[in-house]
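Ticket #623: bound-state structure for adenosine-5'-diphosphate.
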Amino acid sequence: MHHDTRSRTVTAPALLLTLVCTAAPLAMVWGAGGRGLSPHLVAALVGVICLVVALLLWRVLSQTAQLRAEVKEAHRQLGAERAARLQDQEAAALRYAELERQSQDERAELEVLYATAPIGLCVLDRDLRWLRINGHLAEINGIPASAHLGRTAYELLPGLAPQARRIVDQVMDSGLPLHGVEVRGETPARPGHERIWIEHFNPLRNSQGEVVAVNVVCQDVTEQVQAATALREADRRKDEFLATLAHELRNPLAPLRSGLDILQRAPAHSEVALRAQEMMARQLAYMVRLIDDLLDVSRIRTGKLELRRRRVAVQDVIDAAMESSRPRLDAAHHRLTLAVPTEPLAIDADPVRLAQVLSNLVNNAAKYTPPGGRIEVYARAVGDQAHITVTDNGMGIPASMLPHVFDLFTQVGHHAEHAQGGLGIGLSLARKLVALHGGTLEACSAGPGQGSTFTVTLPRQPGVSPSHLEADGAGTATPVPEIPATAPRPAPESDAVPPGPSARRVLIADDNLDAGATLAMLLELEGVTTRTVGNGPDALLELAAFRPHLFFCDIGMPGLDGHEVARQVRADPSHQRTVLIAVSGWGSDTDKRHAEAAGFDGHLTKPVDAQALRALLRVHLPD
Ligand code: ADP
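RESOLUTION: The complex was predicted; output attached.
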């Protein structure tokens, strides 16, 4: 464009000048010719004029050519520049399109991530209004994601809003993130169930750097927290179980050790030696039973316990169970009521295992009922099932513990109150054994002090019981009249000869009768007069009547434990000279401190060592 203008400005005056220069001399020559100038002069003039014109023309033409060339060059450059610009523009457009595509892909990726992340995500503004929320958090809240948008926490989660208010305010005001905050509460997803979340809050800023919202990351940890709590509880129960196991194994060891000492000292085949042997055999059997129970638990857990099932009558199984439980009932002077149908109530069962279950229930009833209690065992047909119930009027079970008494190692109360012995595996084992028979075992109790009832339900073998047993069992059982579980206890040998005023008198209280009896035999070999009782209340009565110098008192006893007995003895000034010695399977320093605090003068851990016993007698009961 610039070159075009220039060529036009140069060419136009040049042509004009050429025309003027040509026309003027021609006119002058024309005029001179007319005025009669010589032809030579005219010819010379014309020649000069022609030369000038030619020169002018040449100049004009050469300038024009130059201008043209310049214009052409300018055009070429312009074209090249345009092409380069166009190329740049095209490259920029391509790059832009590429970036746009990349950012779209990334956005889509983030959207998918946000929507499908297995963790709750949301963005809340200052009013606790949801600006964004992912599916996982919507699921946690139990409200569709779309229903959150534009609504506030006050509207949808009023129970959680105040906590969220505090946290969001703190993050927005400080501009600092808040991580690992534990939040607890309910959502419409699971009304009535407290959930636990760990949440992280991060401030979100606009282009001016102002905090305008809060990004929330929410992880539901309810199950982990519950699992950790259950693990801690299982660990605690395991520790408690190990302590209980040690205690329970020590208990039979006491009469075993005393028995050995007696056998060493008493003449062979003497009455004392024979009694000691009997007791040792009994205690050994108890230890074997404990270990068998432990093995059974493990066998059931590993699926290795096999039932030897056959058609049996419930009545026969109950008889076998009562035979093994009777010594316990006798020892605690419980009264037993047994009511079974007159006709055989047939079931398909392993009689040994089922007797083990029933005996366990009756033993528990005996253990957890204060002496002189009432225990009832009923069997009856109910529809196509056989029901066996064991009811006692003992200490009962608190409602909160009812669902847990069948858990392995569970015992109601803590170890210092393990007055009744046992490992906390009996009921768990019993329920599993009944389940292997296709039946159920349930517990019910109106609460502490209200007694308990355990019911075994088993499928009946069809067509065995007479029809009058099949309706609902009402009136079908023939109750055996209430009988004392045992004949009145014979008075201890030492009762026969009232102690003289100089006699060294020792009272022994132990609910493990064999343990008490062997200790008494050992002491009598030392020339001491003894009396033995099996529970706390009897001990208090005997203390008043017998007025012992020394009182060996077991700690774990039903009804009134050794600590309570000691407190009552110490509160009574008439017993202030009696030396109180705790004899217990629990032997830790804490147990000894507890004994001392209750008023005991000394503590012996079972099994009692004969030498320690003799040393104690030398100190407290010199000849
Ligand atoms: P343990 O060896 O402690 O007797 P079990 O598994 O047989 O273990 O019983 C578990 C717990 O259930 C007992 O420690 C006791 O607290 C409670 N229990 C069982 N039977 C009775 C009952 N008849 N009356 C009251 N409590 C009972």
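RESOLUTION NOTES: Residues 241 and 409 are 6 Å apart (CA to CA).
TICKET STATUS: resolved
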